[in-house]
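## retry 2 of 3
previous attempt timed out at serialization; input unchanged, resubmitting
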Amino acid sequence: MLSRQKALVVSIAVAAAMGGAGCTDGQDAGQGEYQLRFNHVLAESEPFHQGFLDWAEAVEERTDGGLTIEVYPAAQLGVEEDIIEQIQGGANIGQNTDAARLGQYVEDIAVMNGPYFADDLAEVERLAESETLQGYLDELEQQGLKVISFNWVQTHRHFFTNEPVDTPEDLDGLRIRTPGSPIWQESVRALGAEPVAMDFGEVYPGIQQGAVDGAELVYANIPGGNLQEVLSHASETGHILLINFEVVSSEWFDSLPTEYQEILVEEADRAGLATSRAMEEQIDGIKAELVEQGMTINESPDVDAFRTAGEAAYETLGLTEARERIWSEIGKG
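## retry succeeded, writing output
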C-alpha cells in the first residue's frame, strides 16, 4: 500500500538525484518522473482518504514509479479555494472538490450540487453521457482546471442537529453549517434553515460555542469529526447526493505522457467507484455506532416535502433549465 510517507521519500530521492537542477510541472527532467501532490479536507479515518491512497498505489504500480501521488488529508496543503487557484496556475497539485466550488468558474455546473439532483450512484455514472456536462468540463479545462474524475460520491447528506427534524418547517430558525458557495447556501435556505458558511474543521467548536445549531453532512463525516459528541439527532433527508470532483492543473496534465494521462484517469474512476460503493456499505455500521453513543436517527422524515421545498434553490439561482437538460440527456425525470 502506498503511503504518504513512501511518496515523500520518493520525492526526496528524486530531488537528491537532480542535484538541485530545476524541475517544472512536477517533472524530473533528468529521469522523466512526475509527481502530484493531492489535497483533501477530510480526516485520515474517512473512507475517501483510503480511496485516494488506493488510487495513488495503482497509478504508481501501472507507471512503474514514473508517476507518484502524495496524499495530504485534513487540508494540510491549504484551504480548498487557495489550492484551486494554485492549480489554475499550473502547479502539480490536485484537489478533491465539488460542483459548488467549481460553479465559481463555470456557473451552471453548480447544478450538480442542488437538492435531489441525483438519486443514486447509477445516475452519477450516467452523467458521463451528458453532452451538457461535458461542455461544462471543457469550459473548466480552458480555465486551467482539468477534471479527471467525478466518480467519487460521499453518499447522501442529511441534517444533524440537537432537536428532531421531520419537515422543512422544523428547520425554521436553525442555523445550519454548510460551505459558502451559492448553491450550498440556497439549498439549505430552500430546505428551511438559515445557512452559515463554515469550514468543516470549525463545525465542532462552532456547535459548542453556539455559532451554529447543526450541520448537513454525510454519515461518515460524523465519527470523522467526532460530531456525535455535540450533535444528538440525525434526520435522513438525503437532500444532496454529494458528487466529488478530482481536479488537477490542465497545464500539468497536458505535460504528462499520454499513457500516464490515461492511467491517471482510469485509476481515479476505478478507485472512486470502489470507494463510493464501500461508503454505502458502511452506513449501517456507522449508524449503529452512533445510536450506541446516544444519537437519535429519524429514518423517515417527510422527504417529499423536502424535495418540493428544494425546487426553490434551482429557481433562485436560475439553474432549473440546466437541470432539466441534463436529466433529459441521462434519461431521468
